[in-house]
Write a structure and sequence with these properties.
With 479 residues, this protein is α/β, with parallel strands linked by helices. It has helices at residues 13-25, 73-76, 96-99, 118-127, 149-156, 242-245, 248-257, 259-266, 275-283, 285-289, 298-304, 308-322, 343-368, 439-449, and strands spanning 49-55, 81-83, 90-92, 105-111, 166-169, 196-197, 208-210, 214-217, 221-222, 326-330, 375-381, 384-385, 402-403, 407-412, 420-422, 424-425, 432-434, 457-459, 465-467. Strand 7 and strand 8 form a beta hairpin. Helix 12 packs parallel to helix 13. The chain is globular, with a radius of gyration of 22 Å. InterPro entries: Alkaline_phosphatase_core_sf, DUF1501.
Length: 479
């Protein structure tokens, strides 16, 4: 099969028979768990969970996982390339902890799509679909948008341990202007099938970076506001005792009465679908504990970093351990990685250090708990950055512009072959040099790792079926 988004997987006779059996039995997509070992079994190693780390704004590939030390100065930038644990593989000098763990991760240096605008890039990299949906509006989400990978996962997989199949944290992606960024919602699936948004960082659009330790402002440098990462409020509503909680009808009416407030506070529009899960979650201390990182051991909090990046990643680990299938972790709101200006001080001082520390701690923590082989980690932004560094004005330090033509995507765990580099960019990091990969292939890797078979589909609000897969998984990435 080619890599073109228009192509779809060819299903075997066995898979077709299984799909027909689903229809004959009248089973819907909520029964997909029984098919998680369908045709793709044996072809791609399965993870039980996926953590998708999203770097809104776009990470510069030359200044992170694809340095160009032999390129001209206005391409290679200010950072030095350092050796990793893998011979011949180099990364930025500001990723020393990940460099020491390169045997646990792989990098795809040739992922490409045609868009240089934030909203289009978010749509592509959060949905795994390259064509823009009909009626796409870069200024706001639209009903006709492609559903995000989190929404699709939430729709086709079953809840586990009273937790939803997919969670997005620590907040929705909102620009400081108030623009809600499209691509992160259910779109064509309808508002009742949104992924579960957890609000542990209710400062949408008010901050950049890993506050409070690494908070900064693109123009003025380090910010001085006192923000704090919060454990989500999952307590029983005020005035509701355990005795009255036993009366499910009473609780149903109470929750329905708070629907508007809950949706506004947490962005959970699919409350009907998860009502019973929410009821169980509100009453189960062990389930609530999966969301509270402030009570984790002190040494573990220190290892991840006591900031919004580290605590978001720690919460993601706790959630996959508790049974969540896919956790999307937004490392930085307000397009924090959008380094048009001051790229080198902002990456060096505010963005790369907490990411290097937090992701390294995540790898160590998952491995120590025996979860790394069962958890696929993917880290990407909506695009890369321009090959050449430019200066905006005499008063602003140099930066890089948006660049969809190529970016580096980080993979670890879940059967990933550590120390692997797939594809390459050209000598200035501008375009794929060989083995280009697409967002569709990245999405297929995620879905396949979760055990979602190629025959799977989702239905829009008009009950029309849509393919989940639009390409094969990235070859050579997983063992």
């Amino acid at each position: 099969m080619t890599k073109l988004a228009a192509q779809h997987p060819q299903f075997s006779r066995r898979t077709a028979i299984q799909a027909g059996s689903i229809g004959l039995l009248g089973l819907g997509m909520n029964h997909l768990s029984a098919l998680q070992a369908a045709d793709s079994a044996g072809k791609v190693r399965k993870a039980k969970s996926v953590i998708y780390i999203f770097l809104s704004g776009g990470l510069a590939q030359q200044d992170s996982f694809d340095p160009k030390p032999d390129a001209p100065e206005n391409v290679r930038g200010e950072f030095k390339a350092i050796n990793t644990k893998t011979p011949g593989v180099h990364v930025s000098e500001h990723l020393p902890l990940l460099a020491a763990r390169s045997d646990k991760w792989a990098v795809v240096r040739s992922l490409t799509h045609p868009y240089n605008e934030h909203s289009q890039g978010h749509m592509v990299m959060l949905s795994g679909r390259s064509p823009m949906p009909v009626g796409f509006n870069p200024s706001k989400p639209m009903p006709g948008d492609w559903p995000s990978m989190a929404a699709i996962t939430s729709d086709v997989l079953r809840p586990t341990n009273n937790l939803p199949p997919a969670v997005v944290l620590p907040e929705r992606l909102i620009h400081r202007t108030g623009r809600v960024i499209p691509g992160q919602f259910a779109g064509l699936m309808g508002p009742k099938r949104e992924p579960w948004f957890i609000s542990a960082s209710p400062f949408n659009g008010k901050t950049y970076g890993a506050y409070p330790e690494y908070e900064f402002h693109h123009e003025t440098g380090k910010a001085d506001s006192q923000l704090s990462f919060q454990a989500p409020n999952l307590a029983l509503p005020e005035g509701l005792s355990q005795e009255s909680f036993a009366n499910r009808q009473h609780l149903r009416r109470l929750l329905d009465g708070q629907r508007g407030e809950l949706e506004q506070a947490a962005g959970v529009q699919q409350f009907d679908r998860f009502r019973q899960s929410a009821i169980s979650l509100l009453s189960e201390p062990s389930t609530q504990a999966a969301f509270d990182v402030t009570r984790a051991p002190e040494k573990l909090q220190d290892a991840y970093g006591r900031n919004s990046f580290g605590r978001s990643l720690l919460m993601a680990r706790q959630l996959v351990e508790a049974g969540v299938s896919l956790v999307q972790v937004n490392l930085g709101n307000n397009e924090a990685w959008d380094t048009h200006q001051s790229i080198f001080p902002n990456l060096k001082n505010f963005l790369l250090p907490p990411t290097d520390k937090g992701v390294s701690a995540l790898l160590d923590d998952l491995e120590a708990r025996g979860l790394l082989d069962d958890t696929l980690i993917v880290m990407a932004g909506e695009f890369g950055r321009t090959p050449r560094v430019f200066g905006l004005s005499a008063t602003r330090l140099p930066g890089r512009d948006h660049w969809g033509a190529v970016q580096s995507v980080f993979f670890a765990g879940g059967g990933v072959k550590g120390g692997t580099v797939i594809g390459s960019s050209d000598r200035i990091g501008g375009y794929p040099h060989n083995d280009p990969q697409t967002p569709e292939q990245m999405a297929a890797t995620i879905y396949s790792s979760l055990g979602i078979p190629p025959v799977a589909h989702w239905r829009d609000e008009s009950d029309r079926p849509h393919h989940i897969y639009h390409a094969d998984p990235i070859p050579g990435l997983l063992s």
